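worker-03 picked up job from queue 'complexes'. Input manifest follows; two sequence lines, order preserved.
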Amino acid sequence: MEAASTEPVISARNLGFKRGDRWIFRHLDLELRAGSFLALVGPSGVGKSTLLSCLCGFRTPDEGEVHIRLPGQSSTSPRDLRRYFGIVFQDLQLTAKADLLTNVLCGRLARFTCLRTLFGFPHTQRLEAYRLLCELGVGQNPHKWASQMSGGEQQRVAIARTLFQQPHLYFADEPVSSLDSYYAGRVLGLLRQETAKPPKAVICVLHNAEHINRFADLALSLNPNDPAGHKIRQIRSINMGAGI
Amino acid sequence: MSAPDPKSPLALPTRLPERPWYERLNLLNMTLLVFLLAVIFSGSQISGSDRDLNIFRNLGNFLQDFFPPDLSVLPQTGAALVETIKIAVLATFFAVLISMPVGLGAARTISPRWLVVITRMLMNLIRTIPSLIWAVIAVAAMGANAAAGVVALTFYSIGYLGKFFSEAFESVDLNVSRSLKGIGADSVQAFQFGIWPHAKPIIWSQSIWMLEYNIRSASIVGYVGAGGLGLQLHAYQEFHHWDRFATVLFCILLVVTLLDLLSERVRQRIARRLPSDFCHTD
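worker-03 finished. Artifact:
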């Protein structure tokens, strides 16, 4: 496994977010380097998804700031850099009435002009997307609509789309919630591989303790009773990726 | 405080609570009342011509002239029927093409408010004018020919398809297209891959319905010179050739019924994949 780089990809300082008058989390400092796999853990409703959306720029924190440093990019604002993020949404956000192959291909829309994609993607891209679907066990019906597939299959398609995108940084909100243990391990294994070739950071909301211990380098747990009571646990010594 | 024991007869009410009269004044009952009042006031219109006519005998005499239908006009009727279908097909095609941008412009979730207001007003205006009046306008501008029928029905259909298409676009969850934009898709790509796949089946179902509707309309617009079967109907009516008129009517009936069945089957198959709001099952 490749060691983490020294320069942090994500740095959050004094991050805080409140819903109404109640703080969800406060005084959160985080530095994550490329090559690290960070698991966000905690009971349901504690604010893991909220923290994830603050880190990737979908929500503006009520205090503190997030900076993301990507090679060749001068801006450090998550909002400006969102196109370089691979995001697995909790509600998947697939195009339900498009086939599985098209859904995966959508991951690379940024690489082509609208004129190039107006009549479909190049054959090489289609083949590559199909291979990824096969790798995740959903290659039997690449031309079926996403809405015709089961929840677990749809989740694997959403993950395939994100992997196909080849982003600089991964944010995954419960990416294996609908998967059996075999495919959950497979998906997290693929995300784990992404931390190594070339090193990328992965931030993933996870619930399963076995998955956390097997795949994550670090686990950041939020405390439902104390917004500032978050803790980071180092699982692997090989990647000294984050500090809090 | 403990709840009363439901098994005890003392705890159960002995009287049904009365519903206050004002609770009956809901929108449904009020509109029903207004409609019934309107029917009573409109009754005075049915006074007839004050002539002592035997309506049923007149009707019988008129219908007698229809039989037997004169089948010698079948070749001309067949040709006019083909022309009618061609008018409807072309009008639907052009209307679908034009209604796409119009529908997008009228979709509240996609377009700016000023554009929505303008396109919706335009579509309302188009819909208030009946197809026959559109045909009169088109014939006045282009002369009495089938092209006028195509233009008339195209305009007429835009009023409906534009509205249907805008509703189809509005029904799409925009989160998918937003997330595609988030990962770098441009506006065209976000529409093509995030909105269009959801709207396409609805739009196609409604276009088939419009084609079916236009075939019926195309049979009529000829009455004012816009080509098709209507032209023939008008001529036979003018010269009181009711047996020939009957042949044309039967042909229209046959084609419209067949198309109705066919399009209903196709639309039903599409509708199985659509939310119920978008299924025209008439």
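worker-03 released lock.
The domain at 70-278 of chain B is CATH 1.10.3720.10 (MetI-like fold).
Chain B touches chain A through 19 residues (CB under 8 Å).
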